[in-house]
Specification:
By secondary structure, this protein is mainly beta. It is about 10% helix and about 50% strand. The protein has a twelve-stranded antiparallel β-barrel with strand order 1-2-3-4-5-6-7-8-9-10-11-12.
Length: about 260
């Protein structure tokens, strides 16, 4: 599931953030979902979650910045290091850097016989716009800066606040994701002459296009000004060049997430 940007009004704040404040969040997050897009295999992962903010600079793992910012102004466009270049309370955009883990291959399952997609550094341009008090539109473009086959990837997200009070919020959203030909072929292509092409009976060259459509829901609850929890659920369906790939075992998937953190 994709992390959604949390945008809350000042009435929910536990205290306003000052530009030179140093803020942090430490916690743990778990995730259950497909091993890879189109895979029938599901697995559970659990690991540390954290976020740091100092002035206009932010760095965080997935989900950390949004949880740290709950009850304040929105903090962070996602995992990695970021900085807003412009913000007027309704519209903002900025730049970020993040590590992309790529894709490991195995001797079995959907990635058997496919080349590894190496990890890389991805630069991202992000933006967010408040359409109405309960509606928020956001998007990002991320480019592989190291030339390791990651290409260009993008996403567009629309979220709606279904319920909120001084301690909690329920968000729902829809999202579209896709990439250029290099990105799509790295993750969904089957090179001619590869072990995977022999196993599947054909090769496949993926073109630029959409990757997936997803529906997401997330619930945040503040146990206190310092302790917060987050639960999420998501459904996704592959589209376009991704869906046409012979490595796809199923077109739909779902995910669940749960996290808890302490902020100063």
């Amino acid at each position: 599931m994709k992390a959604m940007i949390t945008v809350l009004d000042p009435e929910m704040a536990h205290g306003e953030l000052v530009d030179d404040d140093f803020r942090y969040l430490l916690g743990v997050a778990s995730h259950y979902g497909p091993d890879y897009w189109g895979s029938k295999r599901y697995s559970t992962s659990i690991g540390p979650m954290w976020a740091l903010r100092w002035g206009k600079w932010r760095i965080s793992t997935s989900g950390g910045a949004a949880l740290m910012g709950f009850g304040h102004a929105a903090i962070g466009p996602g995992p990695g290091a970021s900085r807003d270049l412009y913000s007027d309370g309704r519209f903002r955009f900025g730049l970020s850097l993040r590590l992309d883990g790529g894709r490991k291959t195995s001797n079995e399952g959907v990635t058997a016989g496919l080349p590894e997609v190496r990890s890389t550094l991805r630069g991202r341009l992000y933006g967010a716009y408040t359409l109405a008090p309960e509606w928020h539109l956001s998007g990002a473009l991320g480019q592989d800066l190291a030339g390791r086959g990651g290409g260009l990837v993008g996403n567009l997200d629309l979220s709606h606040s279904l319920y909120r009070d001084s301690r909690s919020e329920l968000l729902a959203g829809i999202s579209l994701g896709g990439g250029d030909a290099r990105y799509m072929d790295s993750y969904f292509g089957v090179p001619e002459g590869s072990v995977a092409a022999t196993r599947l009976g054909r090769s496949y060259r993926a073109k630029a296009g959409l990757r997936e459509f997803s529906l997401n829901a997330g619930y945040t609850y503040a146990f206190s000004p310092h302790w917060l929890g987050f639960a999420s659920a998501g459904y996704s369906r592959l589209l376009g060049p991704a869906l046409s790939s012979p490595i796809i075992e199923q077109s739909q998937g779902y995910s669940l997430g749960l996290s808890i953190g302490y902020r100063n």
